[in-house]
Amino acid sequence: MSTGAVARRLGVSPTTLRSWERRYAIGPARREPGRHRRWTAGDIARLELMCRLTADGVPPAEAARAALGGAPGAGGAAAGPTAAPGGPDALPLGAVRPECRGLSRAAVRLDAPTVAELLDAALAENGLVTAWEEVIAPTLHAVGRKWATAGERYVEVEHLLSWQISAALHRIRPLPEPPRSPPVLLACVPGEQHSLPIEALTAALGQRGVPARMFGSALPAEALHDAVRRTGPRGVVLWAQSRTTADPALARSVAGIEWGLRGARTRPALLLAGPGWGADAGGPRTERLFGLRSGLAVIESLARPRAGTGAAGAEPAAYGS
Fold this sequence. Notes:
By secondary structure, this protein is of the alpha/beta class. Helix content is 47%, strand content 9%.
């Protein structure tokens, strides 16, 4: 594997790997012509052990000596294939892409710069939707499972990872919006603090040039109603993470909001997202969203021009209560 690929897998920066090689002689066993580093399975096993030891607070020099002494073929088994990947603090990832393991290791170490670097690389190399589905979401779920089984110990890991994911999503530049095109509103229901999934949806809509207005976590009901009346949106996405925050009555009231001139009034399409919504939520013009990819398809179908609305799909600018 190349140095960059190994760095992503382990959750460290390429600079860190080069520094370890220079300082502690824990480098690749061979180089290809042109002096390009290529890391073998044995090399990576030594690095994994060093990562585990430094994450446990062992000084790097001591960790390097232990890794070199316990590497395959050096008389030790600590870094052998039977060792639990990541050690006792590893997140329960299961069968996932290597990027997930690197991201999780950096998060457990609370290595914010490396987490940010790995997130940006995953988004740039895979695109937002694939990066979310195959790298970011699995790592988030693993943090949640670890938190549930280990008590409060992993709260700081979850908070740091969530903050870095949110920051990475905010670094994605949206395309210019079409003029006079009704937006899609996105908000968490009152009392709901988990906003990352709709932050990802907002960023993905921005990449596609779909006008979106994101209101974040725990938007009060009155503010939500006012925002719908003021913007005349094509659709409203309401996120509820749990049954305790999902409010079917709120969903029905939002779906019933009207605006426009008398005789030509319209309502928004209501899109319910998140595991908190039950089968009884919503009503006419209400649809459930399941996953980022399929949710994007639903919203993009709403944003397509309709007959009589012009090239940009704009409605008459007659919004009111």
